[in-house]
Structure prediction request, 206 residues.
Amino acid sequence: MSEHVRGVVATAKKAPVTVETIVVPDPGPGEAKVRVQACGVCHTDLHYREGGINDDFPFLLGHEAAGIVEAVGPDVKLGVDANGGWVTADVATPTIRRLQEFNIYFAEQPVNEGDIEGMAEVRAAVDVPIVADESVYTLSDAKALAARKACDVFSIYIGKAGGISGAKAIADFALQAGITCVIGSTLELGVGSAATVEGAVPVRRG
Prediction:
């Protein structure tokens, strides 16, 4: 059943934002409905309002939301990203095990970024792929994670890796090591988006 919620909307380029009533339908294929508990509005949302992303107005602003998944449509794969918030393996492992009953697709950065041993401990103890994000900035980071079998996936960002060449070095190593890569984005504009595409296109799939 659809429901009505309140949201911050950019209705036109450079126009003042307004608070509007939004109709939220039941989730369709590939969609999930989340009861938002907290949500941030930041410079990215301002770029949308200024027309810096595209001109497909109106935009519902706000992202990086925290909330409760209330319903999912067909063929939805849910992942969880702790951003290191579970801190240690002692907390991360039982948390992921509890979440496995909901058929989560992956768990990202379950422990602090510098805790490779903790990441390896978690990976050995759970049955979902572990994604390294904040733990992999450089090729050296990637090699250290691979040596300890601490993750199944590297999350690569062009900016985080120091540029296209740094990102490609990690991706090339991942191919040799049998580790999957995903290319991330923080909604960069212009040059940043071009660099992300330039870095992603040449990466081969193993």
